[in-house]
Fold Cytidylate kinase.
Amino acid sequence: SSSPVLTIDGPSGSGKGTISRRVAETLGWHYLDSGALYRAVGLAAAWEGVDLDDDEAVEACARRTRIRFADDAAGEPRVFVNGQDATDELRLETTGAAASSIAAKPGVRAALVDMQHDFRQPPGLVADGRDMGTVIFPDAAFKVFLTASAAERAERRHKQLMDKGVSVNLDSLLGEIIARDERDANRAVAPLKPAPEAVIIDTTGIGIEAVVARVLAHVHEGG
Ligand code: C5P
């Protein structure tokens, strides 16, 4: 499909998820949370006791894992992994770490390509991840890269988890986030980095609404 795509890449806690959802809602476009796919595979591998050092076994797991997105009655997005509502478990930092580990495997990334392309449907798609603008939708008309200081990203994740009733230590969360970003940025395949033509927005100290407005302005200006 040649529907327009807006890619929003960046590290964990940069505000990608919230901002991408709001922008998609405003534009009336579809939304792809690609991180949820890697998280789902990490979780399914853990459930099934797959050896994370066995690349072929993890790739096979990625190919057989069924992932479905659906909003609940209150309009809250839920994610089902092999038929089970895994929304809350998917958000845990332990799942994020598992996702980052399996996401470094080329076979796992290849297994998830078609699923991501299928989200490109009229009237358009907002795609959130690490390699949306560089690898998955290189022809996207609109590309944004969000950043924020590590301290602020850890605080945002901390607040998100607290809101979900999950209590974690802020300092250890900061350490985990820095380690995960380092792994994502330094891996050989599809590393976290802005596409050359991406608009880079530093969201440190900036409210969600202001960032949403800047992203929408980028789209309305024609990329
Ligand atoms: O965005 P989120 O924190 O949910 O992503 C979880 C992990 O999945 C990331 O740390 C990264 O390793 C991996 N990921 C990826 N490519 C994407 C999206 C996520 O490698 N497009």
In short: The chain has a mean pLDDT of 94. The chain has eleven helices and eight strands. The first helix runs from residue 16 to 27.
